[in-house]
Amino acid sequence: MPTGRRDFLKLSASALASYFTLPATRKTFAASVDPLDSAREAFPQGVASADPQPGAVLLWTRLEPLPDEQRTQVVLQLSPTNLFEELLLEQTLVTTTESDFTIRAMVHELEPDTKYYYRFIAPDGATSRVGRTWTAPLPDAERPVMIALASCQSWPPNRYGAYRRLIQDDQMADKDSGIDLILHVGDYVYGLPADPDEPIEPGQTGGMGRGGRGGSDARESVPENFDSYLSGHRQIYKTYLTDPDLQDARALYPFVAIWDDHEYGNDVWQSYTDGRANPEKRAAATQAWFEFVPQILTGSLSVPGVPNEARDYRKPSSIAYAPMTNFGEGFLSEEQNNLAAIRSQTCYRTIRWGAYVDLVITDNRSYRGPSANPGYSVANLEAESSSVNVFSGFSLFEGETLYTLSQGHKANEGSP
């Protein structure tokens, strides 16, 4: 499909973020770019789609760059069939190191409640797997809805059999009872690699303590700056997304995703993790989530009476470590670095699916105060006292505190 000057300038302006808004055509046309045989695995993290709307959907991939490559192009093709004999969209997109060569393309001017197929082609002709997705029904469409739920998917590899079972069950289901969406409610990844340049190996928990849940070793294993945190978080997403069952699910179904705590740390709130505030790590974790877990934020639709407040990630212009201070209403720390971290992205939103379903996607980590814990006083938090961890989840997982508390079942014949 030819690209006019205005469209080219629009694409060029957004290229640094590797995020594009693209119109599909109403009439199909023949492809001008064909895939070629290539031994290179150019798209090792597969493809994905997210947040369908009646006239739009977001498509995602990541291109593995050639050595020393800083900037490259990828062709996106969208077709009404998986044969790609006719196309509704063919567009060359630019991706760079700034987004770790991920691409997020919001395709609009699509038909409601309609299935589409898509793929990406690298400059050498290497082609991604084919992705399948669909748009949402119109808001007044009265039809059944089937939503699958996913969460808490820790490593090791080849252990995502639940996704394989989900796919198999859906293939055997009646045509009218197939899955419409996979709703992922958080903990997409756990932990952080000890070396941000190395992938997690089978059996490792990622340098985040027992079960990848966090602890003092996490701060010691990675240099404390934004770039190192970002590199580490990107690596863990790239590792998780090599799992074949997770890849198949992402390729076959549109996802709607929100984070929980382990995308950043254990039992986190605002920019707090591992016994202290860490705004740089929080901002880096947010950027990696935005890059590797596709979603529509700024372009998310409002629903009647509720305007959309979701906003795409924007890297803070200035951010550094500082203790959490100036606690206001709802225990929100108004310290400027904490606010910069949590305001770098707004991801709560509403997804409407026909006449029967509004998915209210809530962010339960960015704006909340700490969990119930006698150590979480304002004085202890501002002083970064070790008392805040006395009854933390990490202490319980170590077992000693939990064992002591359990003795109450036996003391004084069960009546301590």
TrEMBL record:
Task: Name all PhoD-like phosphatase metallophosphatase domain ranges.
Answer: 148-373
Q: Which InterPro entries match?
A: Metallo-depent_PP-like (IPR029052), PhoD-like_MPP (IPR018946), PhoD-like_sf (IPR038607), PhoD_N (IPR032093), Phospholipid_Metab_Enz (IPR052900), TAT_signal (IPR006311)
**Pfam families, alphabetized:** PhoD, PhoD_N
Composition bias type Gly residues, residue spans: 204-215
**Residue intervals of the Phospholipase D N-terminal domain:** 45-135
- For region Disordered, the annotated ranges are 196-220
The name this protein carries in UniProt is PhoD-like phosphatase metallophosphatase domain-containing protein
**Could you tell me which species this protein originates from?**
marine metagenome
